[in-house]
Amino acid sequence: MPDLWQLHLYGYEADLTVNGTPHLIRPGRISPAPPGTEVRYRYRGRSEHLYVHLRLSTSGTPRSVPVIQDAGPELPLLTAQLRPALDVWPNTAARAAAEVWAALWRVAQLTPPTTRDTQAAHPAVVAAVALIETRLAEPLTVSEIAKTAGVSHNHLTRLFRAATGETVVGSIRARRMERARHFLRATTLTLPAVAASLGIPDLQAFNKVCRRELGAAPRCIRAAQTTTDNAPLGHGDGGGEGEDAGAVGVVVGDGPTGEAVAGEADPLGCGGRAVHRRPA
After folding, report:
1. Predicted confidence (pLDDT) per residue in 160-173, tens digit
2. Rounded distance between C-alpha atoms, residue 60 and residue 109, angstroms
3. Measured torsion, CA atoms of residues 45, 48, 53, 59, in degrees rounded to the nearest 10
4. Is residue 84 located within the same domain as residue 148?
5. How far is Cα 84 from Cα 10, in angstroms, rounded to an integer?
6. Of the candidates 271, 71, 94, 253, which has an alpha carbon nearest to the alpha carbon of residue 183?
7. Radius of gyration of the chain (CA)
8. Are the C-beta atoms of residues 144 and 59 closer than 8 Å to each other?
C-alpha cells in the first residue's frame, strides 16, 4: 500500500516476503509493514488474521521494531485491544483510534523472547487483564471481572496481586492513567476523545482525575510535549492471491534490514478480519 502502514496479527502458518526478504508466519505473531512495502503471502490453507491500516507522521521519537515477532504473553491483550477497535469502527472513530494506539504502543514495547518471564501467568489473571484492557472505556467491578475469569472475587484478588504486585482496582486505575498520559503526550486526539477512551463522561471529571493521579491538568500535560499533526482518514483495500488484504494506518521510515522505524502520530483508517485460502 503506497500511503498506509499495515499491521497484522496472525492466527495461522504461512510464508511472508517483505521487499524480497522471506519470513515465517506462525500463530501469535504480529507484523507491521511501512507504506510502499512490497508484501507477498504464500498461504497453506484457510488463513485468518486481524489487520489494521494506519497512517503515522515521521515526527516523534523513533522506535525500531522487528518486521515480524511473537506477541508471546501479550497476545491476548493485543487481540483484546484490536477486536473492540474493529467492532466500533467507524461509528465511534475516537475510541477505535484509542484502542489501536494502545495496541501499537504495546507492540513497540514487546521484549525479545529471551528476556521475558518464562513463568506463565494463571489463566484467570490473563483473562482478567484482557478484560481490563478491553473495557478501559467502560465501568468495571472486581466481581464482574472475577465472574468472567471463572474464579471467585477473593481468589482473583489473591492471584492478581501475586502475579502483578497490585490490586485489580489499582491496576484498572493505573492502566487508565497510563493510557491518558500516552494519548495526551503522543497523539493529537481531542481531550473529549481521550476522556472517552477512559470511560470518563465529561472534561471536568477528566481534569480532576488527571490533576489527582498525574499531577497536572490534561492541557498542561499535552502542552509539555511536542504534538503531532493530524493525519487524514484513509481506507485499505483488499489484495489478490499471494497478497494481503486491508489494515489501520501508520507512516514511518525504513529502518535497518529487517526492521521498521516508527514515528508517533494518530492512527486513523479501517481494519477488519481477513480470511484467505490457498488457490486450488
Report:
1. 988 888 899 998 99
2. 16
3. -90
4. no
5. 17
6. 94
7. 19
8. no
Between these two residues, 73 and 152, which has the higher pLDDT value? 152
Identity of the residue numbered 202:
D
Q: What is the H or E stretch that residue 43 is in?
A: strand 39-43
146, three cell numbers? 472475577
Cell of 85: 477497535
Q: How far apart are CA 251 and CA 72, in angstroms?
A: 25
Of 227, 250, 268, at which residue does a domain stop? Answer: 227
Strand order through the sheet with 63-66: 63-66, 259-262, 252-254
Q: In this structure, what C-alpha cell is assigned to residue 95?
A: 475510541
Task: Give the count of domains, the chain.
Answer: 2
Angle between helices 168-186 and 153-164 (to 10 degrees): 50
Residues 10-26, mean pLDDT to the nearest whole number: 87
Cell numbers that stand for 208 in this block: 480532576
Q: Which of 271, 193, 149 is nearest to 140 (CA)?
A: 149
169 close to 179: Cβ distance less than 8 angstroms = no
Over residues 103-153, the pLDDT tens digits come to 888 888 885 543 344 345 789 998 898 888 888 888 899 999 999 999 999
Tell me whether strands 47-54 and 271-276 are parallel, antiparallel or unpaired.
antiparallel
Q: What is the largest CA-CA distance in the chain?
A: 61
Do 22 and 111 have their domain in common?
A: yes
pLDDT of residue 111: 58
Helix (H) or strand (E) holding 69: strand 69-70
